[in-house]
Design brief:
This protein has one domain: Porin, CATH 2.40.160.20. About 15% of the residues lie in helices and about 65% in strands.
């Protein structure tokens, strides 16, 4: 699993170095776990690093890698309070962004999220998003992040900031 992770990082940054006509971006988000995840976690944070190539005036595509950490909750089982473990993922995905209006962009990330925490095997990763440009280098981002895991999904609604890096 670690070999796959490091190979993916090398491939993403290697592709980025081949064609320097794209843009790096970095983001940080806070979120609320919902559905199955909401039963076991209270709060989540996520950081992302991506690289997008301009395909046309209104469309960009590229790759992203990140880290997501959901903080465990205290749940009651038969009157006994138990602290659940934190859940972490490293999503590696292809990204697409479409400019709907001059300051408004819709997009999605699709790929695989590596499970970092014990007993977490990871799964298919999907993240539709909406972005509003505050300035040339800063976007406000709202996203739904989901990971299909055995027997369900791990879903988080996030809000955050994305910075363009020159």
């Amino acid at each position: 699993m670690k070999k796959l992770f490091f190979l993916s990082i090398i491939a993403i940054f290697g592709i980025c170095r081949v064609n320097s006509q794209g843009d790096f971006n970095a983001g940080i988000s806070a979120g609320i776990p919902i559905g199955d995840a909401g039963d076991f976690a209270t709060f989540a944070i996520a950081v992302d690093l991506g690289y997008l190539f301009e395909i046309s005036d209104k469309f960009e595509a590229g790759g992203t890698i990140g880290y997501s950490h959901s903080f465990g909750d205290e749940i009651s089982i038969l009157g006994v309070t138990v602290k659940t473990e934190d859940v972490q993922f490293i999503p590696i995905a292809a990204s697409g962004r479409f400019e709907v209006a001059p300051d408004f962009t819709l997009g999605a990330d699709l790929g695989y999220a590596l499970g970092v925490s014990d007993g977490n095997d990871g799964g298919f990763y999907y993240s539709p998003r909406a972005q509003y440009s505050v300035s040339e280098a800063i976007d406000i981002v709202a996203a739904y992040r989901g990971v299909s895991v055995d027997g369900g999904s791990w879903d988080i609604i996030t809000a955050g900031v994305e910075f363009g890096i020159d």
